[in-house]
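Module 6 notes. Inverse folding takes a fixed backbone as the condition and produces residue identities as the prediction. Think of it as a translation problem where the source language is geometry and the target language is the twenty amino acids. Below is one complete input and output pair. Work through it position by position during the lab.
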């Protein structure tokens, strides 16, 4: 009976380790306070509740959509290696996963993004 338990436990342990590694590698860095390191991902007001520091938002920066943004729904973008909640500045077509976007504004802790304009070779143009 103990050999049967070991035969099931080993594959389950391997599956659990692989699932953890895949889940951990999917996202960017969690949004943390630059002053005290407090986790700010659920923060809504733009200030760290631990030390009171203002959270700098990456306005004007370019990132990629990591969770689809459709209409007025909130999705997620990765900018400068960090994940942010995001919505469309002007809801038109869905912004699918992997779409390159520019942060144009913020509303509380939600970034408002729009598609970027690209030039030759896929490089981002200003504007």
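Target side of the pair, the amino acids:
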């Amino acid at each position: 009976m103990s050999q049967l338990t070991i035969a099931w436990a080993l594959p389950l342990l391997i599956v659990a380790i692989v699932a953890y590694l895949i889940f951990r590698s999917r996202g960017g860095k969690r949004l943390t306070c630059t002053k005290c390191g407090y986790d700010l991902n659920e923060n809504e007001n733009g200030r760290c509740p631990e030390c009171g520091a203002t959270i700098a938002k990456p306005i004007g920066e370019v990132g990629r959509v990591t969770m689809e943004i459709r209409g007025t729904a909130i999705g997620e973008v990765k900018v400068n290696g960090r994940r942010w909640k995001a919505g469309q500045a002007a809801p038109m077509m869905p912004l699918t996963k992997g779409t390159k976007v520019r942060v144009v504004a913020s509303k509380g802790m939600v970034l408002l993004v729009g598609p970027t304009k690209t030039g030759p070779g896929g490089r981002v143009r200003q504007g």
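Reference fact for the lab report: The radius of gyration is 19 Å.
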